[in-house]
Specification:
Layout lengths: L4 E3 L4 H22 L8 H19 L12 H14 L6 E2 L9 E8 L5 E12 L2 E10 L5 H5 L5 H12 L7 E9 L4 E9 L2 H24 L27 H4 L6 H8 E3 L10
Parallel strand pairs: 5-6
Antiparallel strand pairs: 1-8, 2-4, 3-4, 4-5, 6-7
Helix pairs in contact: 1-2, 1-3, 2-3, 5-6
Length: 280
């Protein structure tokens, strides 16, 4: 991260999820900005929002150089359309912020302490049956059910979302509403789940986060970053059969330290990332 190394080849999982989330963002912003319409026009409002979302997805997904039969371009477009149709009459409503804008795709900065800023991007803040939640959209090849949603408690991302909802937006969110889409070769199925956080849990998460940041600072000052090899196989699966290949840096870390630079120069490019810059 510090040196800016990134894989040369784009990851299908990341691109699929990014376009999927952006399309839903466009739809929700379109819907939130529409004035109240008579009953006869509501279907048209939904469809106009869907057209905007699908038009974006078609443009952003071309060309599609990947061969994954599950995370395909056709499945991407189909999943967006089916999700929006599935939740057309959703009782979940977008919160309107104090400046009148819809709480959709929020780039948030929270001063964690004197030295550290927590930067979080939220998909959406909603009310559901009178209760506020952070909403997050997920796509997965895995099965959905109670086991899937239980995996988000504890979870660093979901706890951070809840903290930001309470502190930055002064909204007593109960937790995170997760709209999950299971992407299959010939279908997509959706399920909504929740992960809850209490204030004592969030206070504990903040304290733990400060401890971890302090340990990272110690490592930076000592110019030594210990390898966490228990996580190498958990991320970036792109196998058509769902087999986990792990972190893209796995081959580099598994090599002799004397030749790692050669591996990096062969399979990676340098692209600096500044978390303080706004997303485009």
């Amino acid at each position: 991260m510090l040196e800016g190394w990134r894989p040369k080849e784009e990851n299908v999982q990341l691109r699929f999820g990014r376009i999927y989330a952006k399309a839903l963002e466009i739809y929700h912003k379109t819907q939130a900005n529409l004035p109240p319409a008579p009953e006869i026009y509501r279907k048209g409002d939904h469809r106009s929002g869907m057209i905007d979302a699908v038009e974006y997805a078609l443009t952003a997904s071309w060309p599609w150089p990947f061969t994954d039969p599950v995370k395909s371009r056709e499945n991407l477009i189909r999943s967006i359309i089916w999700y929006l149709d599935n939740y057309e009459d959703d009782p979940c409503k977008t919160v309107t912020l104090s400046d009148g804008t819809p709480a959709v795709e929020l780039a948030t900065r929270m001063q964690l302490d004197k030295q550290n800023i927590l930067i979080i991007h939220l998909d959406r803040i909603v009310t559901f049956l009178g209760t506020p939640y952070i909403q997050d959209q997920k796509t997965t090849k895995g099965s959905l059910g109670s086991y899937y949603f239980e995996g988000y408690n504890p979870d660093n991302q979901m706890s951070a979302y809840s903290v930001v909802g309470h502190v930055v937006y002064d909204t007593p969110v109960k937790g995170v509403m997760i709209d999950a889409a299971q992407i299959l070769v010939g279908s997509t199925r959706f399920e909504r789940g929740f992960t809850y956080r209490t204030r004592p849990q969030l206070d504990e998460w903040i304290a733990d986060t400060k401890w971890w940041i302090a340990s990272y600072r110690d490592a930076a000052e000592a110019a030594g970053w210990p390898m966490n090899d228990t996580s190498c196989s958990k991320y970036r699966s792109s196998d058509p059969f769902g087999n986990a290949h792990g972190c893209p840096l796995r081959k580099v870390c598994g090599a002799d330290p004397r030749v790692r630079e050669k591996y990096l120069e062969s399979d990676f490019v340098k692209k600096q990332w500044n978390p303080l810059e706004e997303r485009k």
